[in-house]
Amino acid sequence: MDRPGLADFLRARREALRPTDVGLPEGPRRRTPGLRREEVAARTGMSTDYLARLEQRRGPQPSEAMLTALSRALHLSLDERDHLFRLAGHRPPPRGHRSDHVPPAVLRILDRLEDTPAMVISELGEALVQNRLARALVGDESGFTGLRRSQFYRWFAEPETERALYPVDDHARQSRTLAAALRAALGSEASGRDARAIAERLTTLSPEFVEIWAAHEVGVLPSRNKTLLHPELGPIDVDCQFLHTENHAQSLLVFTAVPGSPSDDKLRLLDTVATATRG
Predict the structure, then answer these.
(1) Which H or E run includes 256?
(2) How far apart are CA 256 and CA 267, in angstroms?
(3) CA 220 from centre of chain
(4) Which CATH superfamily hosts domain 3-87?
(5) Arithmetic mean of pLDDT over the chain
(6) For the HTH cro/C1-type domain, which residue ranges apply (predicted)?
(7) Which among 77, 198, 231, 270 is placed 20 to 30 Å from 58, CA to CA?
């Protein structure tokens, strides 16, 4: 681990970012260039003290998960991310396999969607990044590990909890949609191996999955209009818009509602409900 190099790199990248680059107001009084340490720390889930120790050449070796979070918070390119991993004494994630690295351009768009629920998902249905309103709308999906990171897996393996967000009448179509998306991922050079592992595991867990999988459906498009059942606000009718990366390995999913509708009012209440829940 190159502590001096890591410290200098983290500080330089933090100071190179403007608050507006990550969806924050510029503010009238900023005594230091770029982002404050507490702003970067909040975006990664680490403490400000931990980041300070890293920048002061006295921190412990960061985990790979923490380096991934720092890469996103600092809007690093793939080359910069790999450099960060090497400075921290880790081998960079192989680029030939699928990557959780979210392109800086996509992160910039996400950061500007302060008043709209939005999230970045992989082609395996994994939530890579969620803004605060998306977490308030569909739940915080950052804590899942292994196969459970994939909504495709959770939908069939854990139906009691995963399907609570959807009306019962929508379950059948959602099952077909997710199974078809998983089958499409089998042909992905980046995600095919992981998609196959999910499918093989589900065939041992879910008779419903086995039946749908046997139909060999592909191209079942997700519904652009959905009703989500929020635990505090009740049913919310949302329009789902997808912005795909060039290779379709990731998508920016944005939830909106018809302006002036009851569902639009509920989306505006998400932040208040989330704050009350945290309190």
Answers:
(1) strand 250-256
(2) 8
(3) 23
(4) lambda repressor-like DNA-binding domains (1.10.260.40)
(5) 88
(6) 34-81
(7) 77
The pLDDT of residue 40: 87
> What CA–CA distance (Å, rounded) separates 53 from 132?
27
Determine phi and psi for 253, rounding to 5 degrees: -105, 125
Lookup: tokens for 143: 């804590």
How far apart are alpha carbons 186 and 153 in whole angstroms? Answer: 14
Distance of alpha carbon 137 from alpha carbon 215, whole angstroms: 32
CA angle, residues 195, 69, 272, in degrees to nearest 5: 95
Tokens 């990731």 sit at which residue? 250
Beta bridge partners of 33: none
Q: Strands, DSSP E only, in 117-270?
A: 118-122, 127-130, 225-230, 234-244, 250-256
Least confident of 31-40, 180-189, 232-241: 31-40
Asked if the model's pLDDT at residue 208 lies above 60, the reply is yes
Model confidence at 5: pLDDT above 80: yes
**Residues 85, 88, 91: CA angle, nearest 5 degrees:** 45
Distance, CA of 80 to CA of 84 (rounded, Å): 6
| Cβ neighbours around 105 below 10 Å, total | 11
Q: How confident is the model at residue 95, as a pLDDT? A: 63
**DSSP summary character for residue 247:** T
Residue-level pLDDT at 279: 47
- pLDDT band at residue 42 under the 50/70/90 scheme: confident
Tokens matching residue 261: 């509708």
Strands of the 225-230 sheet, one edge to the other: 127-130, 118-122, 250-256, 234-244, 225-230
Joined tokens for residue 140? 């915080």
Pick 104-278's CATH classification: 3.30.450.180, 3.40.50.2300, 3.40.50.2000, 3.30.2130.10. 3.30.450.180
